[in-house]
Structure formats: structure tokens, C-alpha cells
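User: quick one, fold this
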Amino acid sequence: MKNFFIPAVVALMVVGATLTGCNCQDDIKDDTAFAASVTASTVPQEKNAFVELFTGVKSEQSAEGHRILNGLMVTHPGRIFCMNIHTGVYADNTYTTDFGNELLRQADINAFPAGTVNRQVFETYAMDTVNQGTAIPIRYIANACDLVMAQSAPANLDAKAEINAQTRELKVAVAIYYTESETDTLISTHKLNVALLEDSIWGEQLGGSTLNPTQYDFNNAKYCHSNMLRHLVTDQWGVDIVPETGKQIRRVFVYTIPEQISGVDVNLDHLKIVVFLAKGKQNVINACAAPIKIN
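Assistant:
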């Protein structure tokens, strides 16, 4: 399975690549035109909210979490982006990924379901009032999103994606424009992340019929999962970005989508991409969606 990216900055010259799982130098293409097709806004804006929901098919209250987050995305289109991560004991080894356990560990979750918003610490809403981790109960996610969306974003994002239906090759182009300089002298790089999500996955979900009946098919006794994390194209914690103001920073990522992930078919028509930029493993400074075109 190929998983690599092609950097391109300003002049869009191919300057390097990161490969995972294979030695595929001959497969790296010059994607300067595709990279140039995205341009981030140069006007200072507020942050978008990026929500990680830690969930599982055996967690009854998770269905309520799904309903709440779907409602937030409808109420705030283009401002709130959600990623449902099936992990932990309540996942029952269903819909899990290679990345969920580490994400769960860093969020300091002590009950399911729970979430993080831009991987920030909210002292008022913290699930663990002693360690003050980023985890918050689902009932406070809307409040945390409101706080984040009022914050100034030091960087803007733009992204688009294409999928070759025959080869199942996914290409994602991302543009970053920093409107503010990094003020922390200890931080020399940020982390750019590309997440592959999937909607309309039918299966089981404890509590689905009662806590989120609009996503439940009573005839077939199946629940429709959405916003499900399937893969992190940029690996566990993303790829390095040097925060430089005043120019468009562009990257192209390439990933061959498998037929199945964790034993569950991957439907190309139901995929979506969320891109987020963070200061290391925590503190997401902005996020956006990447519309997908299937060729």
C-alpha cells in the first residue's frame, strides 16, 4: 500500500518525498499543476472547529454523540469538521484503525463517548479535572466549538482531492497561508494532517435505534455510521510544515485506497477528506474539508 507526499512551495518544485511501506521512487509524479489548483485565503480568519469523537459500537451513548455532532455540522456548515474514531474496549475490534489507540491515549479519555475540540484544553469542560487533558464530555462539545470558532486562526487552509476509480489512487492537494508568525520560539515546525473518513457504513451500534433513530434502519436492524476515521494519510501525527508567513505553502499527498480496511469494504463514493494543521500532536490551529472528485 503506497502512502507518500510530494512537497511544493511557491514555485511548486518537487523537493522531496516521504514513503511508507514500499520503495516507490519511480511512482512519484510531478503534480505541480494539481498543487497549484488550491490557494488558501490570505485574509485573517477565525479558526474552524475540528472535533474528534472517541466512540465504539458497544458504547450505547455513542449514538447520542453521533447525533449531536451531525447536528453541529448542519448548524455550522464549513466551520465544524468531525472525525469519529472507533477505538478502546467499546469498539469491540470493529471499525478500528492503526491510529486510534494513540489518539485515545493522548486525549486522556476516561469514559465513552468523549471528544476533543481542536485538541485544546478546556479547564471548565475537562473530563479529567486533575490532569486537565483535552478530553471533554459530549455535552460540552458545542460550547467548546463556539469558543474555538471565535479564536483567530494563524493560518488558513484550502484543499481538494481526486480519486482514480480504476487504480483507487487518491491525491490530495493542500495549501496553507500563514497570516501570523509562530510566537513560540520552541516550535520550529507544525504538523499537517490528512484524514480519510467514510460515511454510510451500515452495521451495529448499541443504542442506535433509541438515541439516534434517524440513522437507524428498523427494517434491517442496521445503523448508518458516518464521519468514520478510516486512515490517516499523513500517518499518526502528520508531516512537518515550517510556518512561514507571506506565501502559499503547498503539498500533494498520494495514497492507494485498499478494497477493505479492518475487514470492512471501502466505498469510494462515500469517502471524504478532512485536513487539519496542528502545533505538534496537540493544538489544532485550523481545519478544512477537501472536496473529492472521482475520475
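User: anything notable?
Assistant: DSSP finds five helices and 22 strands in the chain.
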